[in-house]
Amino acid sequence: MPKRHSREEDRISSLPDEILHHIFNFLLAASTVKTSFLSRRWRHVWSSSPNLHFDEYYFPFSYNEEFMIFVERVLLFSDATNLNCVSITTRGGCDMFRVLSWIYTIMKRNVRDLTIYHQQKELLKLPLKIFHLQSLKRLSVTSCIKDDPLPDSSYRNLEVLQLLVET
């Protein structure tokens, strides 16, 4: 019988960051951040991930303040200057001002794909700047207000635009 080492080899930690980031793409941000406790190698890998997925559903209803603080901290400590994909799902307890501040922060990070699934009574008023982002290729938003009609040229960078708009 072959001799086994008491400590198994950690093959996942030896993977390049790009592969770990690809794996993180399948996880919610809360789970991605938790990987920082696995080892020293993993401590900061999450912060350079270009994909962030937030969902208020996984925070108990009475903890929506914790969800908002969590999103703000992840955006603050994320050092990815170019975000590939960001998704945010709100379910009724988020302050609109804070949601808009997240959108502005994400816009500054050259996001390519932004999905906002907004399930709240108060409609989300999208900033018009979002339609002029050079980096943005895909935008999907539910329950939003778009006040001013934009000329078709405003959407020239977008390859996919999905808006559930209330006027």
How would you describe this structure to a colleague?
- By secondary structure, this protein is α/β, with parallel strands linked by helices.
- The chain has a domain at 50-148 and 155-165.
- It is 25% helix and 20% strand.
- The protein contains 4 helices and 6 strands; from the N terminus they run ααβαβαββββ.
- Strands 1, 2, 3, 4, 5 and 6 form a 6-stranded parallel beta sheet that branches.
- Helix 3 links the parallel strand 1 and strand 2 (85-90).
- The mean pLDDT is 83.
Biggest sheet details: 6 strands, parallel
- Report the portion of residues in β strands: 15-25%
Oligomer: single chain
Number of helices: 4
**E-strand count:** 6
Provide the fold topology.
Layout: H1 17-24, H2 29-34, E1 51-55, H3 64-77, E2 85-90, H4 96-108, E3 113-118, E4 124-125, E5 138-145, E6 160-165
Parallel strand pairs: 1-2, 2-3, 3-5, 4-5, 5-6
